[in-house]
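pasting for ref. prot 1 ->
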Amino acid sequence: MNDDYAPEYYEDDPHSRPSGSWIKEIIQLVLMVVLVRVGMDTFLPRYVVDGASMQPNFHTSERVIVDRVTMLFGGPSRGDVVVLDSPTTPDELLIKRVVGLPNERIVIQGGRVYINGELLDESYVLNYCTSRSCDGEWQLGSDEFFVLGDNRSHSLDSHSFGPVSRATIKGVARLRYWPLYDVGVLSSPDY
């Protein structure tokens, strides 16, 4: 066999590739995009804020990315903003702040929150709910959290429906990505 007639292929020359390889590359690209999208939706889903319950810190139509991985490794911390299933309305999601952790005793008196007898400093709350309907006492179980809206007088939260189980919490809001002027990482307050 004479080597003078052997075709030459160069990796940098797209015309030297065998026909049909571009189809394989497109299929691989599409699969990669699908896998990245499924991974993002599974571990870092996006949610749209709806309602006034978290004002002034969150407003209707703002968009947040939620971290689900935290729920696999212990759950949220006090002060974290979480997205959870509504205990009162099927297929509805709520966004609230975690104030009470498992096995704690929560007392709301005069609108102020006490954890195991100690006043919780909540600098993110502008107006406390001072009506008697907001006051109460709750003993959390080993798998329960107490969640409240930052806009206490206008929030359907644990002061109304009680503690929520870990299973109802979808994840912790970690990043606000809309509106663009308010994009940023969401941090929890230091208590």
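and prot 2 ->
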Amino acid sequence: MRIDPAKVDVIAPNFKRRLSGVTSTIVQLVPVMQSRGIRIATVGPGLPDDFPRLSWRDLPRLRRPPAGKPFRIWHARRNTEMIGGIVLRDLLRLPLRLVFTSAAQRHHKPFTKWLIRRMDAVVATSKRSAAFLEVPHVVIRHGIDLARFHPPAGDADSWAATGLAGQYAIGCFGRLRHQKGTDLFVDAMIALLPSFPQWTAIVSGRVTAEHAGYAEALSRRIADAGLAERILMLGEVDDIKPWYRRISLYVAPSRNEGFGLTPLEAMASGKAVVASDAGAYAEIVETGVTGAVVPAGDGMRLQEAIRGYIADPSMAARHGQAALAAVRATFPLDRECTELRSVYDTLWYGASPAG
């Protein structure tokens, strides 16, 4: 949906066509920020058609500041988007200030450091990612849309409604690749499910061409174990939200991660989470209360943490309710929007307005 550039205060570029965690963040944030009175538009591919968007043909109209503001804010989340903002601000001399959100949990390469130093404000998505920044910054953890991700609301959200085997299900969702640790989950299921016949495992996520061999190897491993009807590879489903509501336990076994939204999505759906300590998972999941956190890449520790829950489904249910309460208290999307608005207001006005 094209929008008048004069009515845009914040631009959220998305320079990646394929769905990613960054894209998911933009998809969640934009509607809520609009509802909070923040005049935001996107630019780039891969976003819903009904999102407010600018095109590159609108650039000449960005030479004038928006009404009531000294400049627009360009909020980048990738290197390419920082480069785009620098070109617009410093070469084309558009009235822009640049914000960058960093989720990386590694030492930045020299060029990335150079880009970050040219930002007007920097946001880290976790304490861990903040530790790798060498510039002033604020930590704003992602939130989750509690209207889109919610606990079961009826019979259609039950596991029985799927018609699949078992009484309970355990899920692992996201792109299938070594980084995401899908193989660690599959290995744990191969080891555990023969002893727990009431449980079925669900793996869902996109497989890109470069990771097709990885996914095929997992399917062969499952078949060789005789568990093709107990460990189901669904591929990429049209809507993952109902599957969060149908499972009883969620596993996030990533070897490395930026922030990682899937544990929040599961917790908002009322599910306990077993996660590695990659990304911000250790800042999201509280061991013994809302789930369990294990060292990234440690398949045996992951397996033992999962065993405790599938041996005692009532514990999974209790911790799922605690997870829901924790997300509602700490990770609502409104909180993230409020904190981002504070960053924007500091740039526009020099200090965040009271209240």
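The first helix runs from residue 21 to 35.
Residues 155-330 form a domain with the Rossmann fold fold (CATH 3.40.50.2000).
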